[in-house]
Write a structure and sequence with these properties.
This protein is an alpha/beta fold. It is built from 19 helices and nine strands. The radius of gyration is 23 Å and the shape is globular.
Length: 465
Protein backbone atom coordinates (compact mmCIF):
# COMPACT_ATOMS: atom_id res chain seq x y z
CA UNK A 1 0.00 0.00 0.00
CA UNK A 2 1.27 3.47 -0.87
CA UNK A 3 2.28 5.37 2.22
CA UNK A 4 0.34 8.58 2.85
CA UNK A 5 2.16 11.90 3.10
CA UNK A 6 2.31 14.58 5.78
CA UNK A 7 3.35 18.20 5.44
CA UNK A 8 3.44 20.66 8.34
CA UNK A 9 3.68 24.31 7.35
CA UNK A 10 4.76 26.99 9.80
CA UNK A 11 4.00 30.65 9.05
CA UNK A 12 6.73 32.59 10.89
CA UNK A 13 6.15 36.31 11.02
CA UNK A 14 6.51 39.38 13.17
CA UNK A 15 5.35 42.85 12.10
CA UNK A 16 7.83 45.71 11.83
CA UNK A 17 8.13 46.96 15.41
CA UNK A 18 10.81 49.61 14.96
CA UNK A 19 9.91 53.21 15.68
CA UNK A 20 10.40 54.83 12.26
CA UNK A 21 11.88 57.91 13.92
CA UNK A 22 14.67 56.01 15.68
CA UNK A 23 14.94 52.68 13.89
CA UNK A 24 14.83 50.96 17.28
CA UNK A 25 12.12 48.80 18.87
CA UNK A 26 10.80 50.54 21.99
CA UNK A 27 10.47 48.59 25.22
CA UNK A 28 7.29 46.51 24.95
CA UNK A 29 5.27 45.89 28.13
CA UNK A 30 4.31 42.26 28.46
CA UNK A 31 7.51 40.94 26.91
CA UNK A 32 9.39 40.98 30.22
CA UNK A 33 12.04 39.90 31.02
CA UNK A 34 12.83 40.55 27.36
CA UNK A 35 12.92 44.08 25.92
CA UNK A 36 10.42 43.28 23.15
CA UNK A 37 8.32 40.50 21.70
CA UNK A 38 10.81 39.68 18.95
CA UNK A 39 13.39 38.81 21.60
CA UNK A 40 10.85 36.93 23.72
CA UNK A 41 9.54 34.81 20.85
CA UNK A 42 13.06 34.12 19.60
CA UNK A 43 13.95 32.64 22.99
CA UNK A 44 10.73 30.63 23.21
CA UNK A 45 10.29 29.56 19.60
CA UNK A 46 12.75 30.46 16.85
CA UNK A 47 15.92 29.46 18.70
CA UNK A 48 14.73 26.11 20.12
CA UNK A 49 13.18 25.09 16.80
CA UNK A 50 16.39 25.97 14.97
CA UNK A 51 18.48 24.05 17.51
CA UNK A 52 16.24 20.98 17.10
CA UNK A 53 16.52 21.32 13.29
CA UNK A 54 12.75 21.45 12.99
CA UNK A 55 13.03 23.94 10.13
CA UNK A 56 14.61 21.16 8.04
CA UNK A 57 11.49 18.97 8.31
CA UNK A 58 8.71 21.52 7.87
CA UNK A 59 7.51 23.69 5.06
CA UNK A 60 7.84 27.28 6.26
CA UNK A 61 7.85 30.94 5.36
CA UNK A 62 9.93 33.50 7.22
CA UNK A 63 8.61 37.04 6.94
CA UNK A 64 11.10 39.65 5.69
CA UNK A 65 10.65 41.92 8.72
CA UNK A 66 11.31 39.01 11.07
CA UNK A 67 14.22 37.70 8.99
CA UNK A 68 15.85 41.13 9.00
CA UNK A 69 15.56 41.37 12.79
CA UNK A 70 16.96 37.87 13.31
CA UNK A 71 19.86 38.62 10.97
CA UNK A 72 20.98 41.54 13.12
CA UNK A 73 19.89 40.47 16.62
CA UNK A 74 20.12 36.65 16.58
CA UNK A 75 22.54 35.84 13.73
CA UNK A 76 23.18 32.27 14.88
CA UNK A 77 19.45 31.48 14.75
CA UNK A 78 19.16 33.24 11.40
CA UNK A 79 22.04 31.33 9.81
CA UNK A 80 20.71 28.02 11.12
CA UNK A 81 17.29 28.68 9.54
CA UNK A 82 19.01 29.67 6.29
CA UNK A 83 20.89 26.37 6.22
CA UNK A 84 17.78 24.33 7.02
CA UNK A 85 15.83 25.93 4.15
CA UNK A 86 17.47 23.40 1.86
CA UNK A 87 15.69 20.24 2.82
CA UNK A 88 17.61 17.23 4.09
CA UNK A 89 14.83 15.05 2.66
CA UNK A 90 14.41 16.35 -0.89
CA UNK A 91 16.31 18.25 -3.55
CA UNK A 92 13.44 20.75 -3.69
CA UNK A 93 13.65 23.51 -1.11
CA UNK A 94 11.20 23.43 1.78
CA UNK A 95 10.85 27.21 2.34
CA UNK A 96 8.35 29.61 0.79
CA UNK A 97 8.56 33.34 0.25
CA UNK A 98 6.13 35.81 1.80
CA UNK A 99 4.61 39.02 0.46
CA UNK A 100 6.95 41.69 1.78
CA UNK A 101 5.15 43.67 4.49
CA UNK A 102 2.27 41.30 5.31
CA UNK A 103 -0.31 43.38 3.50
CA UNK A 104 -3.77 42.01 2.66
CA UNK A 105 -3.17 41.75 -1.08
CA UNK A 106 -6.79 41.63 -2.33
CA UNK A 107 -7.20 45.09 -0.76
CA UNK A 108 -4.14 46.48 -2.57
CA UNK A 109 -3.91 47.92 -6.07
CA UNK A 110 -2.32 45.75 -8.73
CA UNK A 111 0.72 48.02 -8.71
CA UNK A 112 1.12 47.52 -4.96
CA UNK A 113 0.58 43.78 -5.32
CA UNK A 114 3.49 43.71 -7.78
CA UNK A 115 5.75 45.60 -5.37
CA UNK A 116 4.82 43.33 -2.45
CA UNK A 117 5.51 40.18 -4.50
CA UNK A 118 8.69 41.55 -6.12
CA UNK A 119 10.11 42.66 -2.78
CA UNK A 120 9.09 39.41 -1.07
CA UNK A 121 10.61 37.20 -3.77
CA UNK A 122 13.83 39.24 -3.85
CA UNK A 123 14.12 39.08 -0.07
CA UNK A 124 13.72 35.30 -0.15
CA UNK A 125 16.31 34.79 -2.89
CA UNK A 126 18.77 37.04 -1.10
CA UNK A 127 18.43 35.08 2.15
CA UNK A 128 18.10 31.50 0.95
CA UNK A 129 20.00 31.45 -2.33
CA UNK A 130 17.31 30.07 -4.62
CA UNK A 131 14.21 31.37 -6.35
CA UNK A 132 10.99 30.86 -4.38
CA UNK A 133 8.65 28.32 -5.90
CA UNK A 134 5.87 29.06 -3.42
CA UNK A 135 4.68 32.22 -1.71
CA UNK A 136 2.66 32.52 1.49
CA UNK A 137 -0.05 35.14 1.15
CA UNK A 138 -0.56 37.17 4.34
CA UNK A 139 -3.59 35.74 6.18
CA UNK A 140 -3.84 33.53 3.04
CA UNK A 141 -5.91 36.42 1.65
CA UNK A 142 -6.42 35.85 -2.06
CA UNK A 143 -8.17 36.99 -5.18
CA UNK A 144 -7.52 36.10 -8.80
CA UNK A 145 -5.50 39.23 -9.49
CA UNK A 146 -3.14 38.29 -6.65
CA UNK A 147 -2.64 34.85 -8.19
CA UNK A 148 -2.00 36.44 -11.59
CA UNK A 149 0.76 38.56 -10.05
CA UNK A 150 2.29 35.49 -8.37
CA UNK A 151 2.45 33.61 -11.66
CA UNK A 152 3.83 36.69 -13.44
CA UNK A 153 6.77 36.44 -11.06
CA UNK A 154 7.43 32.72 -11.37
CA UNK A 155 5.58 31.51 -8.27
CA UNK A 156 4.23 27.99 -8.74
CA UNK A 157 2.01 27.43 -5.69
CA UNK A 158 0.47 28.80 -2.54
CA UNK A 159 -1.41 27.41 0.49
CA UNK A 160 -5.02 28.26 1.32
CA UNK A 161 -7.78 27.30 3.75
CA UNK A 162 -10.42 24.84 2.48
CA UNK A 163 -13.23 27.40 2.87
CA UNK A 164 -11.44 29.54 0.27
CA UNK A 165 -12.48 27.06 -2.41
CA UNK A 166 -15.76 27.67 -4.21
CA UNK A 167 -16.44 23.91 -3.95
CA UNK A 168 -18.01 22.97 -0.59
CA UNK A 169 -16.29 20.15 1.32
CA UNK A 170 -13.38 20.04 -1.08
CA UNK A 171 -11.07 17.03 -0.81
CA UNK A 172 -7.97 18.57 0.76
CA UNK A 173 -5.83 15.47 0.24
CA UNK A 174 -4.44 16.71 -3.07
CA UNK A 175 -3.40 20.02 -4.65
CA UNK A 176 -5.47 21.67 -7.36
CA UNK A 177 -4.91 24.02 -10.27
CA UNK A 178 -6.58 27.41 -10.48
CA UNK A 179 -6.94 28.52 -14.08
CA UNK A 180 -5.81 32.05 -14.86
CA UNK A 181 -5.80 34.26 -17.93
CA UNK A 182 -3.70 33.40 -20.95
CA UNK A 183 -3.96 29.66 -20.38
CA UNK A 184 -1.83 29.86 -17.24
CA UNK A 185 -2.49 28.28 -13.85
CA UNK A 186 -1.16 28.06 -10.32
CA UNK A 187 -1.17 25.12 -7.91
CA UNK A 188 -3.06 25.53 -4.63
CA UNK A 189 -2.67 23.31 -1.57
CA UNK A 190 -5.50 23.35 0.99
CA UNK A 191 -4.67 22.64 4.60
CA UNK A 192 -6.69 20.21 6.71
CA UNK A 193 -8.94 22.48 8.79
CA UNK A 194 -9.69 20.00 11.57
CA UNK A 195 -6.10 18.95 12.21
CA UNK A 196 -4.76 22.48 11.84
CA UNK A 197 -7.38 23.67 14.30
CA UNK A 198 -6.47 20.91 16.77
CA UNK A 199 -2.80 21.79 16.61
CA UNK A 200 -3.48 25.51 16.97
CA UNK A 201 -6.23 25.60 19.59
CA UNK A 202 -6.38 22.28 21.49
CA UNK A 203 -3.36 22.06 23.83
CA UNK A 204 -4.22 18.48 24.70
CA UNK A 205 -3.88 17.36 21.09
CA UNK A 206 -0.14 18.05 21.00
CA UNK A 207 1.01 16.79 24.38
CA UNK A 208 2.31 13.51 22.93
CA UNK A 209 3.60 13.19 19.36
CA UNK A 210 3.30 9.40 19.28
CA UNK A 211 -0.33 9.53 20.35
CA UNK A 212 -1.01 12.31 17.84
CA UNK A 213 0.49 10.22 15.03
CA UNK A 214 -1.38 7.04 15.95
CA UNK A 215 -4.74 8.47 16.96
CA UNK A 216 -5.11 11.56 14.77
CA UNK A 217 -2.90 10.83 11.75
CA UNK A 218 -2.97 7.05 11.42
CA UNK A 219 -6.65 6.95 10.37
CA UNK A 220 -5.58 8.97 7.32
CA UNK A 221 -3.66 5.91 6.15
CA UNK A 222 -6.97 4.34 5.14
CA UNK A 223 -7.31 6.99 2.45
CA UNK A 224 -4.34 5.44 0.65
CA UNK A 225 -6.38 2.40 -0.32
CA UNK A 226 -8.80 4.57 -2.26
CA UNK A 227 -6.00 6.50 -3.95
CA UNK A 228 -4.04 3.35 -4.80
CA UNK A 229 -7.09 1.71 -6.33
CA UNK A 230 -7.63 4.72 -8.60
CA UNK A 231 -3.91 5.10 -9.49
CA UNK A 232 -3.97 8.54 -7.89
CA UNK A 233 -0.96 9.93 -6.02
CA UNK A 234 -0.87 9.14 -2.30
CA UNK A 235 -3.02 11.39 -0.11
CA UNK A 236 -1.38 14.44 1.42
CA UNK A 237 -2.29 15.73 4.87
CA UNK A 238 -1.26 19.38 5.19
CA UNK A 239 -1.32 21.03 8.62
CA UNK A 240 -0.78 24.80 8.57
CA UNK A 241 -0.44 27.01 11.64
CA UNK A 242 1.38 30.08 12.83
CA UNK A 243 4.93 28.91 13.44
CA UNK A 244 5.01 30.69 16.79
CA UNK A 245 2.65 28.04 18.13
CA UNK A 246 5.66 25.70 18.53
CA UNK A 247 7.13 27.01 21.76
CA UNK A 248 5.65 30.48 22.17
CA UNK A 249 1.88 30.07 22.09
CA UNK A 250 2.26 26.56 23.54
CA UNK A 251 5.35 25.92 25.66
CA UNK A 252 7.35 22.83 24.75
CA UNK A 253 5.58 22.14 21.47
CA UNK A 254 8.88 22.42 19.60
CA UNK A 255 9.62 18.98 21.06
CA UNK A 256 6.25 17.69 19.87
CA UNK A 257 7.12 18.90 16.36
CA UNK A 258 10.58 17.32 16.46
CA UNK A 259 9.32 13.95 17.68
CA UNK A 260 6.48 13.88 15.17
CA UNK A 261 8.58 14.69 12.12
CA UNK A 262 11.76 12.83 12.98
CA UNK A 263 10.21 9.66 14.45
CA UNK A 264 6.52 9.20 15.16
CA UNK A 265 4.99 9.96 11.77
CA UNK A 266 7.28 7.38 10.17
CA UNK A 267 6.41 4.82 12.83
CA UNK A 268 2.75 5.42 12.06
CA UNK A 269 3.38 4.65 8.38
CA UNK A 270 3.35 8.23 7.12
CA UNK A 271 6.11 9.97 5.15
CA UNK A 272 7.03 13.64 5.41
CA UNK A 273 7.00 15.78 2.26
CA UNK A 274 7.00 19.43 1.15
CA UNK A 275 4.78 21.15 -1.44
CA UNK A 276 7.50 21.73 -4.04
CA UNK A 277 8.66 18.11 -3.78
CA UNK A 278 5.07 16.87 -4.03
CA UNK A 279 4.58 18.86 -7.24
CA UNK A 280 7.83 17.48 -8.67
CA UNK A 281 6.70 13.92 -7.99
CA UNK A 282 3.01 14.01 -8.75
CA UNK A 283 2.02 17.37 -10.19
CA UNK A 284 -1.46 18.82 -9.79
CA UNK A 285 -4.13 18.12 -12.39
CA UNK A 286 -7.53 18.50 -10.70
CA UNK A 287 -8.97 22.00 -11.03
CA UNK A 288 -10.79 24.23 -8.57
CA UNK A 289 -12.37 27.65 -8.54
CA UNK A 290 -11.84 29.95 -5.60
CA UNK A 291 -14.29 31.97 -3.56
CA UNK A 292 -12.51 35.30 -3.64
CA UNK A 293 -11.59 37.50 -1.96
CA UNK A 294 -11.17 35.32 1.11
CA UNK A 295 -8.72 34.71 3.97
CA UNK A 296 -7.98 32.06 6.60
CA UNK A 297 -8.83 34.16 9.67
CA UNK A 298 -11.97 35.89 8.42
CA UNK A 299 -15.10 34.11 7.27
CA UNK A 300 -16.49 37.34 5.83
CA UNK A 301 -14.13 37.68 2.88
CA UNK A 302 -11.55 40.27 3.85
CA UNK A 303 -13.93 42.48 5.85
CA UNK A 304 -11.82 42.12 8.98
CA UNK A 305 -9.25 44.45 7.40
CA UNK A 306 -11.61 46.83 5.58
CA UNK A 307 -15.23 47.36 6.66
CA UNK A 308 -15.12 45.55 10.00
CA UNK A 309 -16.92 42.30 10.71
CA UNK A 310 -18.08 39.90 13.45
CA UNK A 311 -14.64 38.21 13.42
CA UNK A 312 -13.51 41.13 15.57
CA UNK A 313 -14.75 41.29 19.13
CA UNK A 314 -16.45 44.53 20.12
CA UNK A 315 -17.16 47.51 17.88
CA UNK A 316 -15.27 47.25 14.59
CA UNK A 317 -16.90 50.24 12.88
CA UNK A 318 -13.63 52.19 13.23
CA UNK A 319 -11.98 49.85 10.75
CA UNK A 320 -13.86 51.21 7.74
CA UNK A 321 -12.82 54.76 8.64
CA UNK A 322 -9.16 53.85 9.12
CA UNK A 323 -9.00 51.62 6.05
CA UNK A 324 -10.53 54.31 3.86
CA UNK A 325 -8.21 56.93 5.38
CA UNK A 326 -5.13 54.81 4.66
CA UNK A 327 -6.36 54.05 1.14
CA UNK A 328 -6.89 57.75 0.42
CA UNK A 329 -3.47 58.58 1.86
CA UNK A 330 -1.86 55.94 -0.38
CA UNK A 331 -3.41 57.56 -3.44
CA UNK A 332 -2.04 60.97 -2.45
CA UNK A 333 1.41 59.61 -1.62
CA UNK A 334 1.52 57.83 -4.98
CA UNK A 335 0.44 60.94 -6.85
CA UNK A 336 3.23 63.02 -5.28
CA UNK A 337 5.76 60.24 -5.92
CA UNK A 338 4.79 59.86 -9.56
CA UNK A 339 4.78 63.59 -10.34
CA UNK A 340 8.15 64.21 -8.72
CA UNK A 341 9.62 60.86 -9.71
CA UNK A 342 9.01 61.35 -13.41
CA UNK A 343 11.64 64.11 -13.40
CA UNK A 344 14.16 62.00 -11.50
CA UNK A 345 13.71 58.34 -12.47
CA UNK A 346 13.55 56.68 -15.86
CA UNK A 347 10.57 54.64 -14.64
CA UNK A 348 9.33 55.65 -11.18
CA UNK A 349 7.33 52.49 -10.49
CA UNK A 350 10.01 50.11 -11.71
CA UNK A 351 12.44 52.10 -9.57
CA UNK A 352 10.20 51.44 -6.56
CA UNK A 353 10.11 47.73 -7.36
CA UNK A 354 13.90 47.59 -7.58
CA UNK A 355 14.38 49.59 -4.38
CA UNK A 356 14.39 46.29 -2.49
CA UNK A 357 18.10 46.07 -3.40
CA UNK A 358 18.69 49.00 -1.03
CA UNK A 359 16.49 47.48 1.68
CA UNK A 360 18.59 44.30 1.48
CA UNK A 361 21.88 46.17 1.59
CA UNK A 362 22.88 45.07 -1.90
CA UNK A 363 23.34 48.68 -3.03
CA UNK A 364 23.77 51.96 -1.22
CA UNK A 365 20.86 54.32 -1.68
CA UNK A 366 23.06 56.84 -3.51
CA UNK A 367 24.38 54.22 -5.93
CA UNK A 368 20.87 52.93 -6.53
CA UNK A 369 19.49 56.40 -7.25
CA UNK A 370 22.31 57.06 -9.71
CA UNK A 371 21.49 53.78 -11.49
CA UNK A 372 17.83 54.77 -11.90
CA UNK A 373 18.18 58.49 -12.63
CA UNK A 374 17.15 60.21 -15.87
CA UNK A 375 20.17 62.50 -15.69
CA UNK A 376 23.09 63.44 -13.45
CA UNK A 377 21.28 64.57 -10.33
CA UNK A 378 22.25 67.59 -8.28
CA UNK A 379 22.71 67.00 -4.52
CA UNK A 380 19.28 68.41 -3.72
CA UNK A 381 17.72 66.15 -6.36
CA UNK A 382 19.42 63.08 -4.88
CA UNK A 383 18.05 64.03 -1.48
CA UNK A 384 14.58 64.44 -2.96
CA UNK A 385 14.82 61.07 -4.70
CA UNK A 386 15.80 59.37 -1.45
CA UNK A 387 12.89 60.95 0.42
CA UNK A 388 10.45 59.88 -2.27
CA UNK A 389 11.61 56.27 -2.06
CA UNK A 390 11.61 56.28 1.73
CA UNK A 391 8.08 57.65 1.65
CA UNK A 392 7.04 54.76 -0.57
CA UNK A 393 8.62 52.23 1.81
CA UNK A 394 6.68 53.58 4.78
CA UNK A 395 3.60 53.90 2.58
CA UNK A 396 3.74 50.11 2.20
CA UNK A 397 4.42 49.46 5.88
CA UNK A 398 1.41 51.48 7.01
CA UNK A 399 -0.81 48.75 5.52
CA UNK A 400 0.63 45.88 7.58
CA UNK A 401 -2.31 43.56 8.32
CA UNK A 402 -1.84 43.46 12.11
CA UNK A 403 -3.14 47.01 12.55
CA UNK A 404 -6.62 46.16 11.33
CA UNK A 405 -6.68 42.58 12.62
CA UNK A 406 -7.28 43.39 16.27
CA UNK A 407 -10.21 44.92 18.09
CA UNK A 408 -9.03 48.39 19.07
CA UNK A 409 -7.74 51.42 17.24
CA UNK A 410 -5.32 52.37 20.02
CA UNK A 411 -3.53 48.99 20.20
CA UNK A 412 0.21 48.90 19.53
CA UNK A 413 -0.26 47.35 16.08
CA UNK A 414 -2.37 50.19 14.69
CA UNK A 415 -0.22 52.74 16.44
CA UNK A 416 2.75 51.31 14.55
CA UNK A 417 0.86 51.58 11.25
CA UNK A 418 -0.07 55.19 11.99
CA UNK A 419 3.56 55.92 12.90
CA UNK A 420 4.58 54.59 9.48
CA UNK A 421 1.87 56.71 7.87
CA UNK A 422 3.26 59.77 9.68
CA UNK A 423 6.76 58.93 8.48
CA UNK A 424 5.53 58.57 4.88
CA UNK A 425 3.73 61.92 5.11
CA UNK A 426 6.80 63.72 6.46
CA UNK A 427 9.10 62.20 3.83
CA UNK A 428 6.77 63.34 1.06
CA UNK A 429 6.40 66.77 2.67
CA UNK A 430 10.16 67.25 2.67
CA UNK A 431 10.37 65.99 -0.92
CA UNK A 432 7.51 68.06 -2.34
CA UNK A 433 6.41 70.68 0.16
CA UNK A 434 2.93 69.13 0.30
CA UNK A 435 1.66 68.28 3.80
CA UNK A 436 -0.91 65.47 3.69
CA UNK A 437 -1.37 65.36 7.47
CA UNK A 438 -4.39 67.74 7.68
CA UNK A 439 -6.36 65.65 5.16
CA UNK A 440 -5.40 62.43 6.90
CA UNK A 441 -6.24 63.75 10.37
CA UNK A 442 -9.63 64.98 9.21
CA UNK A 443 -10.53 61.56 7.86
CA UNK A 444 -9.28 59.73 10.95
CA UNK A 445 -11.32 61.93 13.30
CA UNK A 446 -14.44 59.88 12.54
CA UNK A 447 -12.87 56.76 14.12
CA UNK A 448 -12.80 56.21 17.85
CA UNK A 449 -11.02 53.70 20.08
CA UNK A 450 -13.54 51.74 22.14
CA UNK A 451 -10.95 51.01 24.82
CA UNK A 452 -9.27 54.39 25.28
CA UNK A 453 -11.92 56.74 23.89
CA UNK A 454 -9.29 58.41 21.69
CA UNK A 455 -10.24 59.52 18.19
CA UNK A 456 -8.16 58.33 15.27
CA UNK A 457 -6.61 61.74 14.70
CA UNK A 458 -5.59 61.90 18.36
CA UNK A 459 -3.82 58.53 18.10
CA UNK A 460 -2.12 59.74 14.92
CA UNK A 461 -0.96 62.93 16.63
CA UNK A 462 0.66 60.86 19.38
CA UNK A 463 2.66 58.96 16.76
CA UNK A 464 3.50 61.97 14.57
CA UNK A 465 6.25 63.24 16.81
Amino acid sequence: MTRPLLCIHGHFYQPPREDPRTGQIPLEPGAEPFPNYNAKITAECYRPNAELRNFARISFDLGPTLASWLESEAPDVYSSIQEQARSELESAGNAMAQAYSHRILPLASRRDKVTQVRWGAADFTHRFGYQPRGMWLPETAVDLETLEVLVDHGVEFTILAPWQAATPDIDVRRPYRVRLSGGRSIAVFFFDAALSGDVSFDPGATLDAAEFAMRRLAPYRDWSRDYEASAEPPPLTLIATDGEFYGHHQAGREHFLHSLLYRDATRAGIDVVFPAAYLDRYGATAEVELAAPTAWSCHHGVARWSTGCPCTEGDSSWKAVVFESLTALSAELDSIYERAGERLFRDPWETRNRYVAVLLGQLSRDDFIVSQATHRLAPEEREQAGLLLEGQLYGQRMHTSCGLFWDDLARLEMRNNLAYAARAIRCMQRASGVDLAPMFRERLAAARSEGSGLRGDEVFDQEDG
